[in-house]
Design goal:
The structure is a homodimer.
Chain A (H helix, E strand, L loop, with lengths): L3 H9 L2 H10 L6 H8 L3 H13 L3 E6 L2 E6 L6 H11 L6 H9 L5 H4 L12
Antiparallel strand pairs in A: 1-2
Chain A binds a DNA duplex through helix 4.
Chain lengths: 124, 124
DNA sequence: TCGTCGTTTCGTTAAGTAACGAAATATAGG
DNA sequence: CCTATATTTCGTTACTTAACGAAACGACGA
């Protein structure tokens, strides 16, 4: 209860996690979509998502075999809401962030997922 | 140049550094005043201040043998200014932060400093 | 110029973090 | 039930971080 805010800032202290949050401002994503865009392993992405969820920044809904991750925009914590607002308004001058924002709208979950657990591209 | 924001969030990911920033919203402080309030060693406090300064959150002015640390309120970075605003508006419900805010107005640099390098109380 | 005192730097140690592959869970469909 | 698939958990490894004391630095004042 006491110093949760430290965990929020720690959650934000990683480029991959900032990228995840910025992508989630565009739309909900499942783990394997994020994995595909970030080029990280399943377990690594899952860890990042756990950290963001434990910090109170993310929520998730199960939809069949997928888990849809989304921003916790309606958090009861004013601090969380302020932080999300800050992130929403920042980093748009970053080339990687801009590329992600574009990519995230072109990703089709049904093409990308479905090949075991993989880090390489689906075309291979 | 690319991902400085990660260093900003890392700088905020420590309770002592949040306490320092919140105290600096009250007034400028020298290193030994901060050391006294946080009960940490010289070198640890100096490290914290370096991290905050490198992140762009702090500036300092030399005044004789003292170095006065202050918030970098006039940073040219909108992100830094937004972050400082966020911190200013947060954490006031934290008991430690509230105690610090009170203490910082009672601290007299000339009583507290001046006994070599020390972590214990000045009354001893 | 010689201490003194505020601050910084150095070297070390203990603890925390990010990454991965492999194994374990859980859920839909045949 | 059995298999495929999406996600999580486990165990390991390399790296980072926070803390300290000791030593160095730098600016005043006797």
């Amino acid at each position: 209860m006491k110093r949760d805010y430290v965990n929020v800032f720690k959650a934000l202290s990683d480029p991959s996690r900032i990228r995840i949050i910025k992508m989630l401002f565009e739309r909900e994503l499942c783990m394997c979509e994020i994995r595909e865009i970030l080029h990280l392993s399943n377990s690594t992405v899952s860890q990042h998502l756990t950290i963001l969820r434990n910090a109170g920044l993310l929520a998730d809904d199960k939809e069949g075999r997928w888990v849809n991750f989304r921003l916790n925009r309606r958090s009861e914590s004013p601090f969380i809401r302020s932080v999300l607002k800050l992130v929403k308004e920042s980093f748009d001058d970053d080339a990687v962030i801009r590329a992600d924002t574009r990519t995230v709208h072109q990703v089709d979950r049904n093409r990308i997922c479905g090949i075991r657990t993989r880090t390489t591209k689906p075309s291979e």
